[in-house]
């Protein structure tokens, strides 16, 4: 069995498409996803937006984002089906799970480096409440909202 990955599907529907037509497009996407034992995690209708350039003599389109989990073979079928639909002017399928894993790994590395740096300096691994409140106070002072007298700019 193939591994399930996370994908973002963005498609631009014709501005003439009705709500029923958009619902039918979503149903067709959901049918393909279910056939490949995938799931649709989230659907966002971004609404009617101006296109960066004219497509099929249209200056606007209805953007829809679908966050999908499923195998790679599912994306090939989605791509094939979306290419032949008249209501879909453009579509794009991007694998996003790899980017999320990379971001998570870099976040963990930064955290480990911070802990190691604090330990080398003889500090506890995590900042104490006093340090956090001192940092917040320093940030407030750096904003320039108040001076030493607490009166602010005049």
Task: Explain the overall architecture.
With 154 residues, the protein is an alpha+beta fold. It folds into two domains: 5-95, Alpha-Beta Plaits (2-Layer Sandwich); 100-142. The protein is built from four helices and four strands, in the order βαββαβαα. It has a four-stranded antiparallel sheet. The radius of gyration is 25 Å and the shape is elongated.
Q: Summarize this, please?
A:
By secondary structure, this protein is α+β, with helices and mostly antiparallel strands. The chain has helices at residues 19-35, 72-84, 97-120, 129-142, and strands at residues 5-13, 39-55, 58-70, 88-95.
Tags for this model:
154 residues; alpha+beta; Alpha-Beta Plaits; 2 domains; 4-stranded antiparallel beta sheet; 44% helix; elongated
């Amino acid at each position: 069995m193939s591994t399930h990955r996370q994908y973002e599907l963005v498609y631009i529907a014709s501005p003439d498409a009705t709500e029923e037509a958009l619902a039918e497009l979503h149903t067709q996407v959901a049918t393909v996803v279910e056939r490949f034992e995938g799931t649709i995690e989230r659907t966002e209708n971004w609404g009617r937006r101006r296109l960066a350039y004219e497509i099929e003599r249209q200056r606007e389109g209805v953007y829809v984002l679908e966050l999908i989990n499923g195998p790679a073979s599912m994306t090939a079928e989605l791509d094939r089906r979306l290419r032949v639909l008249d209501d879909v002017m453009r579509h794009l399928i991007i694998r996003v799970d790899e980017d999320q894993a990379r971001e998570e790994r870099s976040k963990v590395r930064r955290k480990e480096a911070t802990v190691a740096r604090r330990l080398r300096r003889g500090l506890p691994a995590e900042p104490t409440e006093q340090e956090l409140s001192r940092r917040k106070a320093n940030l407030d002072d750096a904003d320039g909202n108040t001076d030493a007298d607490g009166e602010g700019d005049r």
